[in-house]
Amino acid sequence: MSVKQISVFLENKKGRLADVTRILSKEAVNIRALSLADTADFGVLRIIVNEPDRCLAVLKKNSFVAQVTEVVAIEVEDKPGGLSRILELLDGAGVNVEYMYAYVEKSKDNAIVICRIDERERAIEVLGKAGIATLSAEALKAL
Amino acid sequence: MIWNTDYETLPRDELRALQGQRLGSLVDALYRRVPFYRAKMDAMGVKPHDIQGIGDLEKLPLTTKDEMRDVYPYGLLAVDLKEIVEIHTSSGTTGKPVVDAYTAGDIEVWSEVMARTLATGGTGRHDIVQNAFGYGLFTGGLGVHYGARKIGATVIPISGGNTKRQLAILQDFKSTVLTCTPSYSLYLAEAAREEGLDMRSLGVKAGFFGAEPWSETMRKEIEEKLHLLAIDIYGLTEIIGPGVASECEHQNGLHIFEDHFYPEVIDTKTGKVLPDGEKGELVITTLTKEGSPLLRYRTRDITYLDRSPCPCGRTSVRMHRVLGRTDDMLIIRGVNVFPSQIEEVILKVEGVEPHYQLVVERRDNLDELEVQVEMNEKLFSDEIKILERTEKAIEAELYATLNIHTRVKLVEPKAIARSEGKAKRVIDKRTL
């Protein structure tokens, strides 16, 4: 099951990230998880929010280049080796993870990681067979 | 459509005779009434009777923008101030503004050449001309206005900017002709798309674009996004404003209205007149102007002339679309580069739009050219490596075509100042 991530292009200059958070706060869009990848010139902000469609509209209205990216939210046992097991499973199945970052809240006792994977369906299947849950947008929202 | 068949299709030998006769009267008037020109001609030892035909033009002095500034504001008037009915000036962004002072006769000529311009794209009495060139001291707005009035079309003098209103008027009044800068037309198309409005569904059949350099690739994009015939028009405040030259429907160079504005192309360094087809600086003599006429004015625009016949039937010489400015020309590590060439190249890269800026710096005695390209939805990816690949692809394309090393930097949309007027394309930070 995949989840919508909002990806935003940001110039690497002072105050741009704050501009995004200010706009979203004004519109009462809640950021649940965040990762920022950057180069010397620019960065890509990736966020999971409570209302992705509205978040995208708000950002576009403010002239940001943004898009929806489908990602997978995976439950990870919150103990040493939890993440390692998942990556080994995916690696064993030949599934490549482009990037990943941690979700703020927990699902029951498990941590959650957000993964950008090209072959999402295959990843979900492999993990499912090994008893590892992936969360739907609704399930994430309910946390 | 040809507005003035008599003059626009005049056989070339008759045209040349007419030009010679007009030049003679002009030189007479300038020598008698304008101390600036009398002094220049005396310094060269040229008298009015030395000018017997258009072939003698080369004997006359060139005029530069700096000289015009030196005699600001009224130093080039060839008539009494009471004969002047209107004054325009350039923006003065690079120094003191230059002045164009019009007599009633000059306004009549301006209306005539702008009627010719608008007619090239088929503008007639039934058309509704949405004129999004700025009204005011800038010549674009009133120039188009006078031409459209002359034709008898309906003018909507909306002026530049106010994009939302432009879109509303386009829909409500069903404008059939659009006039503005080329970059603003794309800005309009962008804004229309954001509002869910399809420019292609509107009835705009022709657009007349000028006041800034643009490229063939940009024309294709404009024609596709706005679904109209995009005509390149040319003019400058010093000469008259728009109405010096215009493309016809064949879009193969701009017909210069040379019964009024006589063109030459010179070598920028030596000042010598170049043969047709050779690139150089365009020089114009205002054959019929009364208020503030100019002899051999150096436009700083780079182009070349083509006297081969045009299928439209006009007999006038054509100039290639402006290739660049003598003062815009960048010399990057000894290689001459015009922003228009860079634009042509970057637009070939999938997804890149004509929103870019060039920043030149000198580091450790070496020139560095940074090409800032605006991000857009087509180019964007959530993966850094894909964005970096785009930068590299543009750099590679620039190197392959122009043989210059550049650093391409993706920037946020609208980070580059634009463009309800002219887009600023070059920032040269070199201090030499």
**Mind summarizing the main beta sheet of chain B?**
9 strands, mixed
The general outline of chain A is: globular
- Low-confidence sequence ranges of chain B: none
CATH superfamily of the largest domain in chain A: ACT domain
Broad structural category of chain B: alpha/beta
Main sheet overview of chain A: 7 strands, antiparallel
Mean pLDDT of chain A, to the nearest integer, reads: 92
Q: What would CATH call the class of the largest domain in chain B?
A: Alpha Beta
General description of the model:
The complex is a heterodimer of chains A (143) and B (432). Chain A is an alpha+beta fold and 143 residues long. Chain A folds into 2 domains: 67 residues, VC0802-like, CATH 3.30.2130.10; 72 residues, Alpha-Beta Plaits. Chain A has 5 helices and 7 strands, in the order βαββαβαββαβα. In chain A, strand 5 and strand 6 form a beta hairpin. Chain B folds into 2 domains: 327 residues, Rossmann fold (3-Layer(aba) Sandwich), CATH 3.40.50; 99 residues, ANL, C-terminal domain (GMP Synthetase, Chain A, domain 3), CATH 3.30.300.30. In chain B, helix 5 crosses helix 6. Chain B is globular and about 75 Å long. The model of chain B has no long low-confidence stretch (mean pLDDT 92). At the A-B interface, strand 1, strand 3 and strand 4 of A face helix 11 and strand 20 of B.
Concise description?
With 143 residues, chain A is an alpha+beta fold.
Comma- or semicolon-separated keywords:
heterodimer; A: 143 residues; alpha+beta; VC0802-like; Alpha-Beta Plaits; 2 domains; 7-stranded antiparallel sheet; globular; B: 432 residues; alpha/beta; Rossmann fold; GMP Synthetase, Chain A, domain 3; 4-stranded antiparallel sheet; 11 helices; 31% helix
